[in-house]
Design goal:
Length: about 425
Amino acid sequence: MAIVELKVPSPGESITEVVIARWVKNTGDIVEKDEVLAEVDSDKATLTLNAEESGKIEVLAAEGDTVKVGQVVVKIDTSFKPEAKAAVETPKAEVKKAEPIVAAPTTNNASQTTSYATGTPSVAAAKIMAENNISSGQMNGTGRDGRITKQDVLAALSNGLPTAAKVLSNSWQGGREKDRAKMTSLRKTVAKRLVAVKNETAMLTTFNEVDMSAIYAIRAKYKDKFKEVYGSNVGFMSFFTKAVTEALFHYPAVNGMIDGEELVYNKYCDIGIAVSAPKGLMVPVLRNAELMSIADIEKGIKDLAVKARDGKLTIDDMTGGTFTITNGGVFGSMMSTPIINPPQSAILGMHNVVDRPMAVNGQVVIRPMMYIALSYDHRIIDGRESVGFLVKVKEMLENPSRMLFGGKVPEEILLGL
């Protein structure tokens, strides 16, 4: 009998311990090589623990346990092998359209049959229920022994929950219960960093507003052709990213940071894009965004958002940014003061677009307006630079051709101004 010990890998430099967030497999399960066994939370990201060999596993740590990097958490008995999956080839002449069949799951060995208490959700169902704040008492399970399946939860959500019979006078159901949940390593690290920013930087915020009419017009005119050529829609974030990279060229201090007693001015733009993920707020980084086209930026943001949603962001994906953009507008925020993402010195906050009456050439007109906010570290960025940077972003968004000419309009280039 050969035993393989699976140790906790190092998720990144300076990280010495992780938390077992969730076991995907349990003691006694027979797994295949590279199959996911568990999810682990580190200070910076959620990673997976994969089987190094095929065999029967023995779990040595419980969910929620804090374990050291290099600690053995799983043993794999390689003398047990997964059952070979038989490949059944059906002659083409005999292929028929199968009718939907609902069958109870079966096992080859009756002694391996597991019983579940009525109303117990499956792992996938429990995850969706937690994300949508649904209790097991709000639905009936159709799985074996009354177990709640993923399909049960999705069907209940599509029909609307909670049902009218269970709603009293509002969304609250009464009672005096409390729920407690242990903070993840990621959440604790975020909390410490945010407090440190408030205590260790001279953070200020300046505001401006942007008339989004020009961006709206471009999107309306070219959205179909853009999608036809690049396979995706063109969003606000790509325009803001492009405008920010051009503005950073003119105001390098906003793209800089403090390192001890030295000021570091980055001659490239690695833009952090704040995205909402199941584990919380993540800030993956778009490398060398100053060299990208709108289409490249759009694709890069989409790829990072998908990785964040699927929990596949790596440490490298989230380190090394020089400036961050966050969009609270997608949640309906009208105005906010975003917090700097250290060691960066500034962050731009986007907000929702609202039709408001504006005075244009002596006339009151309705325009789609957005408030934007720049939080910055006053130790490295002066008021003149912060206000100038925000005005430059505003100018390029209201006249997008400036993004092609270093922040200037074509007429200024022609006149050599």
